[in-house]
Amino acid sequence: MAFNPMQLMGMKKRANLFKNEHPKVIDFFKKIHKDIDEGTMIEIKITTSDGKEHACGLKVNADDMETYKQLLALKK
Fold first, then answer.
1. What are phi and psi of 38, to 5 degrees?
2. pLDDT for position 12
3. What is the pLDDT of residue 10?
4. Rounded Cα gap, residues 38 and 66, in angstroms
5. Residues near 65 by Cβ (< 8 Å), separated by ≥ 6?
6. From residue 61, how far is each of 28, 35, 39 by CA, in Å?
7. What are the percentages of helix, strand and coil residues in the chain, rounded to 5?
8. Residue 39: which of 62, 55, 69 has the closest Cα?
9. What's the CA gap between 11 and 6, in Å, rounded?
10. Closest to 43 (Cα-Cα) out of 31, 28, 54, 27
11. What is the pLDDT of residue 26?
12. What is the pLDDT of residue 1?
């Protein structure tokens, strides 16, 4: 699969925009990223603007950890 350099530049701009608009989220992930290991429970909950709630959870497994390590390596 080939990547379009212009799309990558656009994604970088979007990532920077997100970082500037939601610094607490970025700070949260910086704080906890080293604590994630196999067996970690991750729960996600959203509440829509009309009050509906959706939630899910996952228990991090070995495959998840390998994917996570590869994603972290992209940053380097």
1. -60, 130
2. 87
3. 86
4. 10
5. 36, 37, 38
6. 21, 14, 6
7. 60, 20, 25
8. 62
9. 9
10. 54
11. 86
12. 61
- Residue 10 phi, psi dihedral angles, 5° rounding: -65, -40
Indicate whether this model's pTM tops 0.70. no
pLDDT (tens digit, 0 to 9) for every residue of the chain, 76 residues total? 677 888 888 888 998 999 999 999 989 988 998 999 999 999 999 999 999 999 999 999 999 999 988 888 877 6
CB-based contact 72:33 (threshold 8 Å): yes
The residue type at 69: K
Single out the residue of 63, 28, 23, 58 nearest to residue 44, CA to CA: 58
3-state secondary structure (DSSP) of residue 58 = strand
Q: Which amino acid is at 18?
A: F
